[in-house]
Structures are given as C-alpha cells and as structure tokens.
Amino acid sequence: MQDNIQAYLQSTLEYYKLDLFKKLTKSTISVSRILLLGGVSFLAFTFLSFGFAFLIGEALGNNSYGFFIMGGFYILVFIIVYIFSGKKLEKTVLKSASKIFFDQEN
Q: What is the dihedral of CA 68, 49, 77, 57, to 10 degrees?
C-alpha cells in the first residue's frame, strides 16, 4: 500500500513538473514574440515618424516645426490611449494569461 501511495505521489509530482514546464515555455514564447514584434514595430514607427516630421517640416519651411507637430501628435495619442485603455488592456492581458496557464486542451 505504501509503495502505491509513494508511486502515486511521484507520478503526480512529475505531472505537475511537466505541466509547469509547458506553461513556462508557452509564456516565454509569448513574451519573446511580443518583444520581437514590438521591437520591429518600434523601428518602423520611428522611421515613419522621422519621415513625416521631415515632410511636414519641409512643407512648413522649417524642419523643427515638423518634429514639434509629430511630438504633439504622439502626446495626443498617448493621452487618448491612457484614458481609454485602462480596463480593456487589463482584460486583454488577463485573457491571454488565462489562455496560457489554464489551457487544458494541449
């Protein structure tokens, strides 16, 4: 009887180790993917912003005007995102994390 209990506990422990490994691996992959896509997007937006800033600046006759206008635009976008994304962002992150940690299909 004691051998059976010990074998059961050992197999249960192994199962939970494997399950934890699976969840940590999926989390690491998700975070890596987000960082990679975020980095590439950041570079694209940076170059586009510089391009638009120079384009606007040349149209207005002074390059610094273009950079001020682009900076103001991004401050406006930041304020809008800050105001409207609080609960929605939290809900999205919780859904994604729940999908990774409580997915019983795979």
A: 30
Residue 71 lies in a domain: yes
Domain region containing 85:
2-101
Q: What is the tally of structural domains in the chain?
A: 1
pTM reported for the whole predicted model: 0.62
Q: Which stretch of 2-6, 22-26, 91-95 has the lowest confidence by average pLDDT?
A: 91-95
CA distance 48 to 77: 16
11 within 8 A of 3, measured Cβ to Cβ: no
- Give the 3-state secondary structure of residue 62: coil
Instruction: Find where tokens 């940076």 sit.
Output: 46
Contact 101, 23 (CB under 8 A): yes
Q: What is the pLDDT of residues 15-32, one digit of tens each?
A: 999 988 988 898 899 889
